[in-house]
Write a structure and sequence with these properties.
Number of strands: 7
Structural class: alpha+beta
Helix content: 40-55%
Radius of gyration: 38 Å
Shape: globular
Number of helices: 16
Strand content: 5-15%
Distance between the termini: 84 Å
Length: 546
């Protein structure tokens, strides 16, 4: 079996490796999501109201794009038909982000063993295996994610009040209007009150949402990973898309880490640090990714009523209570708290960092202006696509109402929706400006193109043969040309060499029946053959003596 060092893998995709990588990706992702959801619910104290297992399954389903339908029924005071209508459309992005990171890491790691290039069949096979297993596991959570919490008034101890219908201490006689005479009967009715609140994961909608979630995660991972091979037809993605996509994804994840650090700072000195920690685990990406488009001046429409408005950060909760008919903008929020302008400064620094990263990871061509234009165009397009996605993910729609015989006794809700069209336009403008400025800064400091991945070189990788090794070793550039007079590996062992007396040495065997071979000099020319040796001189005295 091939080891992945060749340019392309020979033969078909190994089935065992494909299944093991898909199982590892999906299983570890669901284990991590379940752990984060359970820990967050426990810190929020939700397990005191019901079973933690079904609630964890429901939260995981919500985190990956599923839908949960809450329902309630209240019967009290002999009245029938009292319904508690509840609607929730909020995704705990902290749970989904953990699963997305693990699925991406295992999936990309399995592709990197394919070599410099991966065939389209292998790419589709590996992605399809992950999607199928992910949806199958999500179907199991949809089956387990339902529960009913029942509140029984008989367990409140109201029937144990002494006095047999009379309040103790003649309290009823002291109340005006004869109200005291009615209270014992009403308390007895309250003792018979029963309330049940349940939630059920919608199987069909959850499976469709989970499939869209995992496909989107794999697509973003392929576009943002700079060291993962792609099919030969997608070779331009290495140089055009991946530098900008990886830079923006890096910055967005760093922003989430900053949100978690802010939550950790808020826990210091707070009366309920566990609640802050639980909310941060489940919803830190919700708040951070809501702030990014808002810092780019993307307007939002929303309203907040009742107790649910308390979950929004300040001053957004006050603005929605006072001006629910006006769009939420950064300028209007700054009228309530001037520190909101720091959000725009933070977004500007973040986008500039993304522009510098794009320039550092983009292959450098000649010309500063042309290089800046290419970086601006690429980061602008990527940001224009990313900002509407963040706006759509952070949409909030939650409401609860208790109606008794047609009269609303309780009403609370949150509605917050961003403008997708403005998110596209403003994202393109911010990305183009940050890309151009970051490219000029990187070019001026000499850092442009300094972190280009091997797959994103200036020229596309050559189509090597099947047996040609990619090889991790690359020889360094020589400092000066090689000299055959000083380099022993460039010398010809059959060159003519003589000692001090002029006789041939043993290091250069000379055979009279073979032509002498001589190497080229430093100029690449063959040297002239040496002159023939002179004839030996004859001693005439020796001949006379003979």
């Amino acid at each position: 079996m091939e080891t992945g060092q060749h340019a392309t893998r020979r033969g078909g995709v190994p089935l065992g490796d494909l299944l093991l990588s898909a199982i590892a990706a999906v299983s570890w992702a669901f284990i991590a999501m379940a752990g984060v959801a359970a820990l967050g619910l426990h810190l929020l104290g939700a397990d005191s109201a019901g079973s933690l297992g079904p609630m964890t399954a429901a939260v995981v389903a919500l985190g990956v794009g599923g839908r949960v339908t809450p329902s309630g029924d209240v019967s009290a005071f002999g009245l029938q038909g009292a319904q508690a209508d509840t609607a929730i459309d909020v995704a705990p992005l902290g749970v989904g982000l953990v699963g997305a990171l693990l699925v991406s890491w295992f999936f990309l790691r399995s592709l990197r063993g394919a070599g410099v290039e991966v065939s389209p069949g292998e790419l589709l096979a590996r992605a399809g295996a992950v999607v199928v297993l992910f949806v199958g596991m999500l179907g199991g959570l949809a089956w387990a994610g339902h529960d009913i919490i029942t509140i029984d008034g008989s367990k409140l101890g109201l029937n144990d009040i002494p006095g047999a219908g009379d309040l103790p201490g003649d309290i009823g006689d002291k109340l005006p209007g004869g109200i005291g005479g009615l209270l014992p009967d009403r308390l007895g009715d309250l003792a018979d009150a029963k309330a049940s609140v349940g939630f059920t994961v919608q199987t069909g909608a959850t499976l469709l949402g989970g499939a869209a979630f995992v496909v989107g995660v794999l697509l973003i991972a392929l576009l943002a990973s700079r060291r993962t091979p792609l099919p030969p037809a997608l070779g331009a993605v290495h140089r055009v898309v991946r530098p900008a996509a990886s830079a923006l994804v890096t910055v967005v994840l760093v922003a989430v880490l900053a949100g978690l650090a802010a939550a950790l700072y808020a826990m210091i000195g707070d009366d309920h640090p566990k609640r802050i920690a639980g909310a941060a685990l489940l919803g830190a990406p919700n708040g951070v990714w809501l702030a990014l488009p808002l810092g780019m001046f993307v307007p939002w429409d929303g309203k907040a009523t009742g107790a649910l408005a308390q979950v929004l950060p300040d001053p957004l909760d006050d603005f929605l209570r006072l001006s629910s008919d006006q769009p939420v903008t950064l300028g209007r929020l700054a009228e309530l708290d001037g520190r909101v302008w720091l959000l725009a400064v933070a977004v500007a620094v973040m986008m500039l960092f993304a522009g510098v990263l794009t320039a550092v990871r983009t292959p450098l061509d000649r010309g500063a202006l042309g290089f800046a234009g290419r970086c601006a165009l690429r980061l602008g397009v990527v940001t224009a696509l990313a900002m509407p996605l963040l706006v759509w993910l952070t949409d909030v729609s939650a409401g609860a109402s208790l109606s008794v015989l047609g009269f609303d006794a309780f009403d609370a809700g949150i509605e917050l929706h961003g403008h997708l069209g403005m998110a596209v336009l403003l994202g393109a403008a911010w990305g183009a400006g940050a890309g151009a400025l970051g490219a000029l800064l990187a070019y001026g400091t000499g850092a442009a193109g300094g972190r280009v991945a091997a797959l994103a070189g200036a020229a596309p990788p050559a189509r090597a043969s099947t047996y040609e090794q990619a090889g991790p070793y690359e020889p360094s550039r020589p400092y000066r040309p090689s000299n055959p007079d000083t380099n022993p590996y460039l010398k010809n062992p059959y060159d003519e060499r003589t000692d001090l007396t002029g006789a041939p040495t043993l290091a250069s065997p000379i055979r009279p029946d073979l032509p002498r071979r001589r190497g080229k000099n430093t100029k690449g020319e063959w040297p002239a053959p040496p002159p023939p040796p002179p004839p030996p001189e004859v001693n005439r005295g020796d001949e006379n003596r003979r």
